[in-house]
Design a protein that fits this description.
The protein is of the alpha+beta class and about 300 residues long. It has helices at about 5-15, 100-105, 170-175, 240-250, 270-280, 285-290; strands at about 30-35, 45-50, 65, 80, 90-95, 110, 120-130, 130-140, 160-165, 175. The protein is built from six helices and ten strands; from the N terminus they run H-E-E-E-E-E-H-E-E-E-E-H-E-H-H-H. It is globular and about 60 Å long.
Amino acid sequence: MRRATLAAVAIGAAALLHAGRAWAPFHLVAIDEVFIGTADCPNAQYVVMRLTGAGMVFINGQDVTTQNADGSEASDFGTFTQVLDNGALGAPFIMGTADAAGLFGIAMDREASGQLVFPDGRVCFGFFQGMAVDCVAYGNFTGDNSGGGAPATAPVRGMALVRQTDTMSDEDDFALGAPAPRNNAGDTGTLGVCPGGVDDTPTPTEGVGLATPTATAVPTGTVAACVGDCNGDGMVGINELILGVNIALELQPISACPAFDCQGTGTVPISCLIQGVSNSLNGCPALAAAAAPPIQRASGPPGARRVAAG
């Protein structure tokens, strides 16, 4: 974390040098979470910051900036235009796109005007005494990451870079995890449906006519044909795995994806999550069976499609 050096001394000096002007602290802030979007909703991006000192609410005019893989400047993600209401120690605040607000059903403290760099780059908040307040480099970032050590792992669509510790090493401090956007009002978003809609029609293989599957809800008490296939497209995407985890944690109802109810109990036990991961990596059993040459099928796709978490 790139906090201003000798913050206490700086505050005292500012009080002396700027007598008569209000001191506006915003420099004790850490980036906690970076989300780069999902495969279905790539523009649903956000950055969550956290106050590491009480009263750090004067963020008006502070930017969230981005850098390319080589360290060159990219477009700003956006600029805050307000003072935070909640200045408690540990209070979060968030900047994100309109798609992120719709996907997670949460109000952004500031709507982003730009996009984050993916998959290799750096994102920073604020500027204080000649340096960024806090930054996170990720992927194959080769630019100057002073004070941050080696970059964090590259982000994956559908997963967030989530702070685990605070050792001033991005590689050690951040790991991939389920997205959990939080705003200054204390609200936490949950993964929903991309506001722009999702195209559930699979891309046909050239020269082969494939039947378009129809998304069919699996009622509670019925074991799903392909565990984790929430939208019935014959595949299990990373966003569907995250939804399954949220249901297992009771952050979402089972009705959000009945296909994870592999035991017909109206719940999502760990065994069902594991089956969903297997189907994501190896393809749905129905499609795999259709690919087996000894069995003649009247119709259906010729093989299972492997899903990449990217």
